[in-house]
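Weekly sync, protein design subgroup
Attendees: M.S., D.O., the rotation student, P.L. (late)

Item 1: inverse folding check
M.S. brought a backbone from last month's batch and wanted to see whether the design step gives back something sensible before we order anything. D.O. pointed out we never logged the input encoding, so this time it goes straight into the notes. Structure tokens as presented (162 positions):
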């Protein structure tokens, strides 16, 4: 019974993800294309963009994140309610990309946990769609109890999040 409930909730969540775009540079433009008629993210139930963290459950980080911006990104993540997921779109969000410099964060996973990384500089909209599909897969298969598990708590604690 618990497993069936997990599956039903997973199915509902998976097909109604509300993304919060945190786009800072070129990768953000690719994300705009992903929302357009050709690629049409709405086909996957994620057309409802939110620009308030409290109403979104997938944080899409697209672009270069300066170290000065890292606390803001972290604050946005903290304001999202559980369950929440994070996609790092492109080389900059995933690893700092070509900007191996004193001012650029060398990957957003230094400040928040990341569920899916999308490769590319920039990734094509197909790559971004694949990232969304990967998150959907995670959401669908996630146990309702995962967020209360010791492993998840340990993961958050490793980022200094209670
Ligand atoms: S990964 Fe490439 S395209 Fe994306 S923000 Fe960085 S430099 Fe721009």
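Designed sequence read out in the meeting:
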């Amino acid at each position: 019974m618990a497993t069936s409930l997990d599956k039903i909730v997973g199915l509902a969540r998976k097909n109604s993800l509300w993304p919060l775009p945190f786009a800072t540079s070129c990768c953000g433009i690719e994300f705009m294309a992903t929302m357009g008629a050709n690629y049409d993210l709405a086909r996957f139930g994620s057309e409802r963009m939110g620009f308030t963290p409290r109403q979104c459950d997938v944080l899409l980080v697209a672009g270069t994140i300066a170290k000065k911006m890292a606390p803001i990104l972290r604050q946005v993540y903290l304001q999202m309610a559980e369950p929440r997921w994070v996609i790092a779109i492109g080389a900059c969000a995933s690893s700092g990309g070509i900007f191996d410099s004193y001012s650029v964060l060398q990957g957003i996973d230094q400040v928040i946990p990341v569920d899916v990384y999308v490769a590319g500089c920039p990734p094509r909209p197909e790559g971004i769609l694949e990232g969304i599909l990967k998150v959907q897969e995670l959401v669908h298969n996630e146990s309702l109890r995962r967020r209360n598990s010791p492993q998840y708590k340990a993961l958050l604690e490793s980022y200094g999040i209670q």
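Discussion: Residues 125-141 form the longest helix (17 residues). The domain at 5-158 is CATH 3.40.50.12280 (Rossmann fold).
Action: P.L. to compare against the previous round before Friday.
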